[in-house]
From TrEMBL:
The keyword Nucleus appears for this protein: no
Entries under PROSITE patterns matching the protein: UVRD_HELICASE_ATP_BIND
Alphabetical UniProt keywords: ATP-binding, Helicase, Hydrolase, Nucleotide-binding
Cited Gene3D superfamilies: P-loop containing nucleotide triphosphate hydrolases
Binding site for ATP: G213, G214, P215, G216, T217, G218, K219, T220
Protein name: AAA family ATPase
UvrD-like helicase ATP-binding domain span: 192-602
Length: 759
């Protein structure tokens, strides 16, 4: 025994020393960058404009590097590989793997970035395919101290030699990670990436890959680590073009926002579906039927038709007065100008210039003829052109035929005028058309975003010098949007680099003004026509064909990582396969890969949830779970009127079973407020979204998509299915959010419960 302790202790002491050396190097690099930054700042305000911008560029570079060095503090080093001599190449000795690459002052390697090709063996090597690895060691740190080590010995010679008595296997680090209490923020998995995940993370950049996986299989984790991997491997290209990461809501983006910085990457543009159209902060679409209608591919035709209606012929001759001279605009003149403008194939607002130029010229010719006829002398044509162009009558007449338009104005008109809507979307039934009608200044919703984008594409830029015709209306709407959703405020604050409280008015103004932007990411976020080098889409099963169309435009190279679970889709009539879901946006080269292990939810809970989904006819791939779990999930049926009490009682029990955990009450909307108040009275910190310091999240099932908690109490499962028009996706998602324990509570009769719930 004494010997055993000695070997382990000796190894621990050795690793502590080596890890300390690496942290010391990190400290030295931080100090160096601080010094450089201070130096640049000291250089003061003197100098030319060029000097200023050079100085700003250097300062930005040092700040970014410093931010990166600060962000990798936690578990800087987590792995070690001992290799066969021939694999050691020019750096003999063990290879340490960490969050970033480090070299010492002599440029000798101290730490290998986990994304480097040589680090791949840390995740991929198996006893059958050793890739030169003799031993893989997991270093488990608390703060800067190595707390434990765990070895996987792959070389049989080393194993039989029994060189040490350190815990063997490699599952310890993984189990410790998956059973740890949740903090309300997602953490990276860099120390324990599993080989099936690693394969997806390291796939080449070109092409679109779909990562299909049941709940908790690490899809979000894979998506984020892949973004970090691609940025590292294709730094030059992607740093310029940028990477876009799309998540379902700003709440979700907040949940994952620390992961990429902790992997040393700060340049990814994160956007929710509501923020993909710059300048518009859209609110969620609350009516799933409206979301489905606006998401149909036919909606693109609706926008096309709306634009076409803005290019009108005239039924009869019309007289326009220029400086007191009556000129004639004939249907034939307008038709020919229209045809020639359309033939330019430019967007509406840009083609309008051709339309206007032709007619102004023809009217000026008429004017000249008339003037020359009456004056009997030649007249300067240039002056006449100007007279015609600036004539109020002509402007009105030409605008009636070909009105310059903003996307906002175009769509506001479509959705607030029944005749226009019916004319543009003849495929809508009467009830459907009624669903889409709304006030002209109603806030934009997430479902409008792809339509605005489509319209912007077809309309093109407004003519320069055109009056900001609906600037005030747009501003009012922005204020409404900013008020309506705190989520967007958060995002915009982040953009502005503002801390603290800002009112909706200031926010809307700042958005409209635009801000001083530095990085590629920030520029890209504000430019609708930006094309990214790669796009990552999470919870991708929720996207409509119109949303895919928008995203395909953001990356014409179609380099995509698409992660989701087709069985979790909540939209009525949602497609059952990825190829159907992605429609025409991607070609047949689309690759679909599957993840098979659930790292979040214990087996006993996964089986129950999968049973419920299957009873509803959904084909679920129930992945095997890494652990069975300690707590059997429960169903409690109480008499009507006792639901809230029962929910609170179950939560109290589960919180006793799993102390210090993050809990969630997943409830129908109308119970959010009363249950939150009840929990607050008990002295608990309650919020609608998870965050550090929050004890209980009280939210609807939709809001908990992509999130996770230690314990979950789910109220009224039958309501979840009914509210989703019979689709079981939301219930399935809600049942798989917990890492430890689940209780389902209802006051509905057993007969009304979704199939598979009663076991
Ligand atoms: N290799 C791993 N090592 C440690 N933890 C992991 C690993 N893979 C996944 N996890 C953890 O499992 C949990 C689920 O991961 P993630 O949220 O990425 O899954 P998901 O497939 O996106 O889930 P869902 O679709 O249900 O929202 C997270 O806490 C994540 O950190």
């Amino acid at each position: 025994m004494g010997d055993t302790v000695t070997v382990r202790e000796a190894e621990l002491a050795l690793e502590r020393e080596r890890v300390a050396v690496r942290y010391a190097r990190l400290d030295a690099l931080r100090a160096e960058k601080q010094e450089q930054l201070a130096g640049v700042r000291r250089s003061g305000l003197q100098g030319s404009v060029q000097n200023h911008s050079e100085r700003d560029a250097f300062a930005a570079l040092y700040e970014d590097r410093l931010a990166q060095l600060e962000a990798v503090e936690d578990r800087l080093v987590f792995g070690r590989l001992d290799l066969d001599a021939e694999h050691e190449a020019d750096t003999p000795g063990p290879r340490y793997i960490g969050r970033i690459g480090l070299t010492d002052e002599e440029h000798e390697r101290l730490l290998l970035d986990w994304r480097a090709q040589e680090a791949g063996a840390f995740y991929q090597a198996t006893p059958l395919q050793r890739q030169g690895v003799r031993r893989r060691r997991h270093l488990m740190l608390r703060g800067r101290t190595v707390r434990d080590i765990e070895d996987e010995v792959l070389d049989p010679e080393l194993a039989s030699a029994g060189t040490n008595e350190i815990a063997v296997g490699g599952q310890g680090a993984l189990l410790a990670a998956v059973t740890a209490r949740r903090t309300g923020r997602m953490h990276d998995i860099v120390a324990t990436i599993q080989s099936e995940q690693d394969e997806l993370i390291r796939r080449p950049l070109p092409g679109a890959v779909v990562v299909q996986g049941g709940p908790g299989t690490g899809k979000t984790a894979v998506a984020l680590h892949r973004a970090a991997y691609l940025l590292y491997t294709h730094r030059e290209r992607l740093a310029k073009a940028g990477v876009l990461l799309v998540g379902p809501s700003v709440g979700f983006l907040r949940y994952i926002e620390r992961v990429l910085p902790s992997l040393g990457e700060t340049g990814v543009v994160m956007a929710s579906l509501g923020t993909l159209y710059p300048g518009v902060a859209a609110v969620p679409e609350t009516d799933p039927r409206v979301a489905v209608l606006k998401g149909r591919i036919e909606a693109a035709e609706m926008v096309q038709a709306a634009v076409a209606r803005r290019q009108r012929l005239i039924p009869a001759r019309r007289t326009v007065a220029v400086d007191g001279t009556a000129l004639t605009l004939s249907p034939g003149m307008v038709r020919r100008a229209c045809e020639r403008a359309r033939a330019t194939r430019k967007p509406h607002n840009e083609a309008r210039e051709t339309f206007v130029k032709i007619l102004v010229r023809e009217l000026a010719d008429q004017l000249r003829e008339k003037l020359e006829h009456s004056a009997g002398a030649t007249v300067n044509r240039d002056y006449l052109l100007e007279d015609v162009r600036t004539s109020r009558d002509v402007r009105i007449a030409l605008n009636l035929c070909w009105m310059p338009m903003t996307p906002q104005r175009l769509l506001a008109e479509v959705f607030s005028t029944p005749e226009t809507l019916r004319a543009c979307a003849p495929w809508l039934g009467d009830d459907e058309a009624r669903l889409l009608l709304r006030a002209p200044d109603a806030p934009w919703t997430e479902a409008d975003v792809p339509l605005l984008d489509e319209a912007a594409e077809l309309l093109g830029a407004m003519p320069s010098g055109a009056p900001a015709e609906d600037g005030e209306a747009q501003h009012r709407r922005n204020v409404e949007n900013a008020k309506a959703t705190l989520e967007n405020v958060h995002q915009t604050l982040a953009d502005l680099g503002v801390d603290g409280v800002v009112d909706a008015e200031t926010l809307a103004r700042a958005n409209e003004r635009g801000t001083v932007r530095r990085t590629t990411a920030e520029q890209a976020r504000h430019d609708r026509t930006w094309t990214y080098g790669h796009v990552v889409v999470d919870e991708a099963q929720e996207l409509s064909p119109m949303q895919w169309r928008l995203l395909a435009r953001r990356c014409p190279m179609k380099s995509f990582t698409i992660v989701g679970d087709i069985a979790q889709a909540s939209a009525p009539g949602a497609p059952r396969t990825w190829r159907q879901a992605l429609g025409d946006s991607f070609d047949e080269r689309l690759v679909v890969e599957e993840l098979s292990v659930n790292y979040r939810t214990p087996s006993r809970i996964v089986r129950w949830a999968a049973g419920v989904a299957r009873a509803a006819g959904v084909k679920v791939t129930a992945p095997e779970a890494v652990r069975e779990g300690d707590h059997e999930p429960t169903l409690t049926v109480v008499p009507a009127g006792e639901l809230q009490q029962a929910v609170l009682a179950r939560l109290a029990e589960l919180r006793d079973l799993v102390p210090e955990g993050l809990s969630a009450l997943v409830v129908p909307e109308e119970l959010v407020a009363p249950l939150s108040a009840a929990m607050q009275q008990q002295g608990l910190t309650v919020d609608r979204v998870p965050a550090p310091g929050v004890d209980v999240v009280v939210a609807t099932a939709r809001e908990t998509k992509g999130l996770e908690f230690d314990v979950v109490v789910l109220a009224s499962p039958e309501r979840l299915v009914a509210d989703a028009h019979g689709v079981v996706g939301d219930l399935y998602v809600a049942m798989t959010r917990c890492t430890q324990a689940l209780a389902v509570v209802t006051d509905a009769p057993e007969a009304d419960l979704p199939g598979g719930l009663v076991r």
